[in-house]
Sequence to fold (427 residues):
Amino acid sequence: MSEKIKINKLEIENVKRVKAVKVEPTQNGLTVIGGNNNQGKTSVLDSIAWALGGKRYQPSNAQREGSVTPPTLKVELSNGLIVERKGKNSDLKVLDPSGNKAGQALLDSFVEEFALNLPKFMESSNKDKARTLLEIIGVGDKLFELDNQEDKIYQERRFIGQTADQKKKYADEMERHEGVPDSLVSASDLIKQQQDILSRNAEKERKRQNLVHLEGENKRLKEIIADYQTKLVANEKDLEDARKSALDLHDESTEELEKNIADVDALNAKIRVNLDKENAEQEAEYYAQQYKDLTEQIEAIRKERLDLLKGADLPLPGLSVVDGELTYNNQQWDNMSGSEQLRVATAIVRKLKPECGFVLIDKLEQMDIDTMNDFGKWLEQEDLQAIATRVSKGEECSLIIEDGYVQGQESQYEVEKEEIETKGWDF
Fold:
């Protein structure tokens, strides 16, 4: 692992609210620049960012108001580089330990942008934080593909689930008629049955008419019995047979079929209701099964994502990405404590450029003392340097800025002022 580059010393003059400040930050852990508002604390961090980050970090009104001397910046780094900006155009000079000159490209090779502007990372969206993490551990593309797959299946499952619920609700609300056939009744079949009965009844009526005819014939024959005695005997025999046959004849009723024919539409309406309910229940069951299958696909994708992250070289134990958002110890960003947020952000900055061993943090007053001390211990443990500001003049502060000076350096500055203005820093 390459050695972490840290800030050994910095000297700033006439930048924003700073008049003259010299600081030697703690190499490991937290250096807290304290003081009241509008005294120059943030100006110190802005100066470091400008010195190391280049023109894009130059304040719009860099020169201290009321000063006739241009801003002067000097930063000494632990790798031996000396970075200076001074003069009317704030020209950059970078000297390596051998005395060779270099430029902004060398600084950019090991100074991480987020280290100079940590709020840029901390204020980004949860998804952007997650995307940064995934890019630096080299699984961004694969995880992006898995996220797209999950989102597509999730949307499909959502539609299927809504459809299944609608189908089931519709099926549950439908009426079911009891005591009706399972299939539709044909009116033509009932009419045919009726016609068959009428045909049989017509045959029976014919037999009845035959009886009447025979009885009439019998009467006529009796009148001429003398002449047709033989014929009468035969006829009486036929008459007897006809009477016996007529006694066994009973007309079949078509009343029930007539009623069924009249009621067939109503009956079929009930049958259709039952059939529709069965179809609705089958559709609801079909979509419910589809929903279950899609859920299994989503769970498989999530497991693949989890396995992917488990095998990745994460900047901090407990870091992960869940549903496209950064989490730490199973907590999303807005549920993390201030110390946890800083710890996560700093760890990711370190991972982006391992050579960058420092980070600048503005407005540390959001942390209580115990939390701040806990964060400082973690920095020491990780061999990291943080230079932070805090609206306070308490013992937790490494130095206090008052009216553009480090408290206690004002008189020293006045003594050295003439020498500094005369000698300057040679290029």
